[in-house]
Amino acid sequence: MLHIVVCVKQVPDSREIRIDPKTNTLIRQGVPAIANFYDMHGLEEALRIKEQYGARITVVCMGPPPAEKSLKQCISLGADEAVLVTDRGFAGADTLATSYVLGLTIAKVAAEIGPVDIVFCGKQTLDGDTGQVGPGIACRLDLEQLTYVYKVEGIDLETRRITVHRLLEDGVEVVQTSMPVLITALKEMNKVRRAPMPGMLRAATYKPIIWTTADFPGLERAKIGLKGSPTIVSKTWVPEQKQVNTEMLPNESATGAATALLEKLWQTELPQRFGWTAQEEA
């Protein structure tokens, strides 16, 4: 049976995100937390693989104790086990430190629960938006990595190979590779299901496995938390709101409206955009 690990991060709701101008960090106090939705698309794909091929799904999360809420949500949807890696020593981690801890966590999951065939991550998180953690985990665990995946075409259990479609800037790439593999999921991959009542009841009483720094004997403390995070935020800012002027061009017919719009563009927008003079226009 396949063993799939899904990495999930609890993040501030992007609609409520604010930045502290003095520290250049996110203000999390009073901001509702949600499961990163790219990660949830990875979980949904894991659930679909489970239904088609048979699989055991373990969800892992590095975060503070309240992140247990997101893990319970994953359990309600159909995940089998959940692991929360939480410790003050992990606080302030950037993508380098995070991928280090998650790499150790997945290795520990493989040793204690069973060998891992597929690791799913979201393509990025709503709060960091870097897309670096998934590839970082793959490098640390020496896994094949398939990024920007929007479709899993199929899995050959005999040859232990998986075929996916990657969405690139200039088209679609169909790739086949061997497992174990790490996949970063796009939101186009699927539609996340709603939790069924039995799953919600199980999640209500479920207690995730909790691991702290004490559970990783070989942990190098210089590689975790703020000490292990060389990233420096030099400046953050909120984009200025642009004022857009609108003008109604009343006309009853589509042809008349199109003609009026073209005349307006010719008189105002096009000369301004291309630097035409009145003489050149003539």
TrEMBL record:
Gene Ontology MF terms: electron transfer activity
Ranges of residues in domain Electron transfer flavoprotein alpha/beta-subunit N-terminal: 23-220
Cofactor: AMP
UniProt xrefs under SMART domains: ETF
InterPro entries from the UniProt entry: ET-Flavoprotein_bsu_CS, ETF_a/b_N, ETF_b, ETF_beta_N, Rossmann-like_a/b/a_fold
Record family assignment: Belongs to the ETF beta-subunit/FixA family.
PANTHER family membership: ELECTRON TRANSFER FLAVOPROTEIN BETA-SUBUNIT, PROTEIN FIXA
Name recorded for this polypeptide: Electron transfer flavoprotein small subunit
Organism: Tumebacillus flagellatus
